[in-house]
Design goal:
heterodimer, A: 418 residues, alpha+beta, Cytochrome Bc1 Complex, Chain A, domain 1, 2 domains, six-stranded mixed β-sheet, 15 helices, B: 438 residues, five-stranded mixed β-sheet, 40% helix, disordered C terminus
């Protein structure tokens, strides 16, 4: 259930006794902009390690230990056109602790989010400098993992909007101009202007939760307007990029544009088509490219409907590049032409239904679902509706959805540089 | 009728039974959950590279990677793939091999009875041909190569190579392209016969199911099969607590941007799989948190000096015949990192973090984290399975944690923080300029 705390600030509570913990998240939502992605990411590093009352990382962490090893973290994510900063906390249910930890947890969240270590209009200069260096090194090191590197590279080729083309946590270059003072402005804008969604999952009473959510004292602000989805026109040309590196395994990544009708029949058909094409061990990519032809250790596809984007990724031997690309195209063509059995089609849908039901055993997933529902109040995202809509997808709808998947970019990391 | 025993605690209930053929089963019903997670595990992993049964005069030595190869091949049958059978009800299936165990699992929300029969049958009914074994070599070869590019994995593998150069725990679980080329259907048949007898296995089921129904189903499934009596099984691999073999330092160079360093300390005390062993392991993990946790002065000092960052980790591993500490992370200059860590270990008694007050707080946090881990069916199944090969249960953990005193921590520290058992491994960053411009 979602209730309004003030304009632009809402609370969603999912009461359940399934878990031994209560999960709380405070989500700050703003339009995705290239200029602010890096600043918001660096801000989370500063907010999650100290505050006025707990000025050192040691004191900050010690307080979490006092709360029976409560976990706390702040991360960033992208949902379509939205950039999200999420502060999350998980505490033990009072049945397993000798005190009621819920009030203490909110006191900690208020301290961390509302009393950061800002003095004289600036974050601590030494802390800022170190966190900026650490984050830049971390961002640069992401390409040490070649699967990640290839995934980011094909997105950089595919997306026309520069804010979509970069990772949701930014790039090292994007941190260059930031200062300990400029980050204070980033912080104040986030607290003052962002749409805020507070989510609680656990054995909690709605009235108690409402009082705790109100205790932040967030001022009213406008909610975000307009569609959250990102889309771009389909191009007739395919952007191709190859890089060579001295690594053992080569990576082949493909980016496709996909169509969806915002949680309508076409949306679910596209999800099923992606699953059949490459989304599970029962998929055509897994069966035929990996198992039957032994041409890849992994070969899979995943769809991001909020960004109208599907990515195929495969780890291969460099000599097999063109053969693997042909085989990938052939698997998608098989979905388009209906070259799959009814039993296989049903097993794919059953797998998706199973996965969605199984996700309800994760407190984190339930919280994510509540947040998505809060962000997309017009979509019916409850588990039962989703299951019904997946089950209703027909073969013909899947073929039609696959026919609209258009290859737009190919990235090949060639490991044969020795 | 096989006797069911029941244990309760921590808001959980566990029902157990041992079948006439020796198979141990644990059932943990979680009525509020949607899925059921079942894990079928044999005490056979990558370190078990030689063995002898009652019919053998000598030990049989098998190629490195055989346990993992067998894991892959068991899914593949004459006219079907076990993946697909699970897939018929939408269940998902997987398997993994470690140094000491191989586990097969499924997770599903419907048709639990069918899926349990599939799990038991595909693991217990091997089918291998020359053709399918040859084909698998390509797939596993790719897997082996992929890990070669993973710097985090190479770091871990590197310190194992330093601490255990003469023990198979240092070898890649998947073997090498050369070693797996020697695997034949005959090898797979032999190891399956030796290590997959029910008396060497445990079945753990956690989730939303009816315990009595599932117990009856497993009993009936096993009663239909004849495995013969559990024969003698002697493992060729021995324990390794030897200081003499340790290589104190090695390094390698990789095309990565962030260099890495790791410090390992080889355990020289044999730990049982009883309460005392559990107690030692829990104490050792608390010791590492005490000395290097992020609420300590040591962590803060190293972090603020740029010696460690968020990549910093510590861990204690207890396996069959070995145990060790590992700690490390990223640094532009790995020597700065590992020298600081060795220094902290050498002087731990004078660490400001090494005190009883801080320990009391960490104990409270450890208890909370243990309870939180019981949210996950997978975590419960792993913990139940691991303890099943010994004499402790999941329910012993909180009492063991409560009973540990700071004096116990001091004793474990004195036993394991042994500079003679310490080793260091570095991965340097290599400049790859020019290659991308070709």
């Amino acid at each position: 259930m979602r209730v309004k705390i003030t304009d632009g600030v809402h609370l969603s509570v999912v009461p359940t006794t399934q878990f031994k913990t209560t999960r709380i998240s405070v989500n700050f939502l703003a339009p995705l902009q290239l200029e602010t992605i890096g600043a918001r990411t660096l801000l989370t590093s500063l907010l999650e390690m100290s505050s006025t009352k707990y000025p050192t990382q040691a004191e900050f962490s010690a307080e979490l230990e006092n709360l029976y090893g409560a976990s706390f973290g702040i991360n960033v994510a992208r949902a379509g056109r939205v950039h999200r900063v999420s502060a999350g906390m998980q505490i033990l249910d009072s049945a397993y602790a000798d005190v009621n930890l819920l009030d203490d947890a909110f006191a900690f969240l208020r301290e961390a989010l509302l009393n950061p270590r800002i003095e004289g209009g600036s974050f601590d200069v030494a802390t800022f400098a170190r966190e900026k260096t650490n984050l830049a090194m971390y961002l640069n090191s992401l390409s040490d993992d070649r699967a990640t590197k290839a995934g980011l590279a094909v997105q950089a080729s595919y997306f026309a909007d520069p804010a979509q083309a970069v990772p949701s946590f930014g790039t090292a270059d994007g941190l260059d101009g930031l200062t300990a003072k400029s980050l204070v402005a980033t912080y104040q804008e986030m607290i003052k202007d962002d749409q805020i969604e507070i989510i609680m999952v656990g054995n909690v009473d709605l009235e108690k939760a409402r009082a705790l959510a109100a205790s932040f004292g967030f001022a009213p602000r406008p909610s975000m307007q307009g569609t959250l989805e990102y889309d771009q026109p389909v191009l007739q040309t395919i952007a191709r990029k190859t890089e060579k590196e001295q690594v053992t395994q080569s990576k082949l990544n493909l980016a496709y544009h996909i169509e969806g009708d915002h949680f309508g029949p076409q949306y679910y058909a596209a999800l099923v088509a992606c699953e059949l094409f490459g989304g599970s061990p029962l998929s055509l990519l897994f069966r035929n490219v990996r198992e039957k032809e032994s041409l890849a250790y992994y070969a899979s596809a995943n769809a991001n409907m909020m960004r109208h984007f599907m990515m195929v990724q495969a780890g291969i031997d460099a000599v097999n590049e063109s053969r693997v690309e042909e085989l990938i195209a052939a698997q998608l063509a098989a979905v388009v032409s209906g070259d799959f059995t009814d039993d296989h089609f049903q097993a794919i849908k059953d797998g998706m239904v199973n996965d969605r039901k199984a996700s309800l055993d994760s407190q984190g997933f339930i919280a994510d679902l509540a947040l998505s529902s809060a962000m997309l109040p017009d979509a019916k995202l409850d588990a039962q509706t989703e299951l019904t809509r997946i089950n209703a997808v027909t073969r013909e709808q899947v073929q039609a959805a696959a026919a609209k998947m258009k290859l737009q970019a190919v990235y090949f990391l060639n490991g044969e540089a020795h | 009728m096989t006797e069911l025993t029941e244990a309760t605690g921590l808001g959980e209930r566990m029902v157990s039974m041992t079948l006439p053929n020796g198979l141990v089963c644990h059932f943990v019903p979680k009525p509020g959950y949607h899925k059921t997670y079942a894990m079928f595990t044999t005490q056979f992993g990558s370190i078990d590279n030689s063995f002898r049964t009652s019919s053998d005069a000598d030990f049989t030595t098998i190629p490195a990677g055989s346990a993992h190869f067998l894991e892959h091949k068991l899914f593949d049958k004459e006219d079907y793939d076990a993946f697909d059978l699970f897939g018929k009800s939408g269940a998902s299936s997987n398997a993994f091999t470690s140094a000491t165990q191989t586990s097969y699992l499924f997770s599903g929300t419907t048709a639990i009875a069918d899926n349990l029969n599939i799990l038991l049958d595909f693991v217990q009914d091997p089918y291998f041909t020359d053709a399918t074994v040859e084909k698998e070599k390509g797939i596993i070869g790719q897997e082996i190569q992929m890990y070669q590019d993973d710097a985090g994995w190479r770091l871990y593998s590197g310190i194992l190579g330093n601490l255990y150069p003469t023990h198979p725990v240092h070898l890649d679980v998947a073997g090498t392209v050369e070693s797996i080329s020697e695997i034949t259907p005959e090898v797979l048949r032999e190891i399956h016969a030796a290590f997959y007898h029910p008396s060497n296995m445990v079945l753990t089921v956690v989730g939303n199911f009816d315990v009595e129904e599932v117990a009856a189903l497993v009993t009936a499934n096993q009663a239909k099969k004849d495995f013969g009596p559990a024969g003698m099984l002697e493992r060729g691999v021995g324990p390794d607590y030897d200081l003499e073999t340790i290589l104190p330092f090695r390094m390698l160079t990789m095309p990565i941007s962030r260099a890495k360093g790791i410090v390992g300390i080889k355990g020289t005390e044999a730990l049982g799989d009883d309460l005392e062993g559990l107690r030692y392991a829990v104490t050792c993990r608390m010791l590492l948190e005490l000395l290097f946790g992020d609420s300590g002065e040591t962590y803060e000092k190293l972090y603020n000096a740029g010696v460690i960052d968020d990549s910093f980790f510590t861990e204690f591993t207890r396996g069959r015949g070995y145990n060790f500490i590992a700690l490390g992370g990223d640094n532009v200059d790995p020597a700065v990192l590992t020298e600081s860590l060795v220094d902290a270990i050498a002087n731990y008694t004078s660490s400001p973090d090494f005190n009883a007050d801080r320990f009391a707080r960490l104990k409270k946090a450890a208890l909370g984290k243990f309870y939180a881990s019981l949210n996950s069916l997978e975590s419960i199944a792993n913990q139940v399975t691991d303890s099943s090969f010994g004499s402790t249960t999941l329910f012993d953990v909180p009492a063991v944690m409560e009973s540990i005193s700071f004096r116990d921590v001091q004793a474990v520290a004195a036993s394991i923080l042994n500079l003679d058992a310490l080793s260091v491994f570095h991965i340097m960053s290599e400049q790859t300029e020019g290659i991308a411009d070709e």
